[in-house]
Amino acid sequence: MSSTTPTGQPPSKEVLDAFRRDLAKVRTEVAKVIVGNDEIVDGVLTCLLAGGHALLEGVPGLGKTMLVRTLAQALDLTFARVQFTPDLMPADILGTTVIVGEGSTKRFEFQKGPIFANIILADEINRATPKTQSALLEAMQEGSVTVAKNTYMLDQPFLVLATQNPLEMEGTYPLPEAQLDRFFYKLHVGFPDREELHAILDRTTGVTKSDVRPALTQQRILELRWMAREVPVARHVQDFAIRILQATHPDGPGAPDTVKRFVRFGSSPRGVQAVLMAAKIRALMDGRWAPGEDDVRATAVPALRHRVIMNFEGEAEGVKTDRVLADVLAQIKPEKK
């Protein structure tokens, strides 16, 4: 990679500045259409650079679909939207083998589904049956699709952005734990404030449309992803992330009372992997070549909130995982060096 340095060698200030400048270009293009939601945009970019996927949760009408579509334009990547419904079948996502040709020239040919785009919007993913939801598992984890004993590799970068409505539960199928664990981040899309609502109305009720231009090339995205992988993590920072993970388990060392009372299962090891990768990217976004405990603390909630499973008492009392994680972060302190 032309813009990265050999493994273990910190990059120059110019390389770090270029990293920040490139992401700033993407944010600028997205801001032409999307009002606010800076944390959501940064969260999605973090997932892209980490090679992960994001679950966006929010009530309808907050611009989740528009955000994903605009991001695909700013990154110059192919985009496909799949509307998840109860009658959606795995073949509608992955593709299917069909017979083409006439007479003696007939042959079987695989017709690729929408999963073969760079950015996939899985809209209202919890409306599809578990059979259809599970069709995404191999693509999200392995970056490949297997149909009729044939395996097809997906083009990189590959990013699944799934949306779900937290309010409406009728006719939905909650995502199983194994599916949730494949998402790098779970991001809550909040309601805009008054000034943001004014800006949204100004942009959407007039005749002027913003032209979003590509800010990064596909090759540059892969270079930035590689650069994020090369960021070193000090042992005490990694240990801090591990202690946070352990404290999400009821029988783990340092678990606060809320975890012991309301949590059935804590996060899997994928959770701490996501925390560390996100901390690396956060440090690069800030112009630093090494993450600290503050980076771990800032990335822990979106990386772990969907991986902590509440028990019956927690569900009955409406205890949110964010509250539990806040208690974990208050309990676990960085150790003195």
For the terminal residues, how far apart are their CA atoms? Answer: 35 Å
The top-level CATH class of the largest domain is: Alpha Beta
Low-confidence stretches: 1-7
**Largest beta sheet: what is the strand line-up?**
2-5-8-1-9
Q: What is the assigned CATH homologous superfamily of the largest domain?
A: P-loop containing nucleotide triphosphate hydrolases
Q: Tell me about the biggest sheet?
A: 5 strands, parallel
Radius of gyration: 21 Å
Strand coverage percent = 5-15%
Overall pLDDT metric:
87
Number of strands: 11
What CATH architecture label of the largest domain applies?
A: 3-Layer(aba) Sandwich
Class by SSE composition: alpha/beta
Number of H- or I-type helical stretches? 15
Could you please say which CATH topology of the largest domain applies here?
Rossmann fold
Keywords:
2 domains, two-stranded antiparallel ribbon, Rossmann fold, alpha/beta, 337 residues, 11 strands, Helicase, Ruva Protein, domain 3
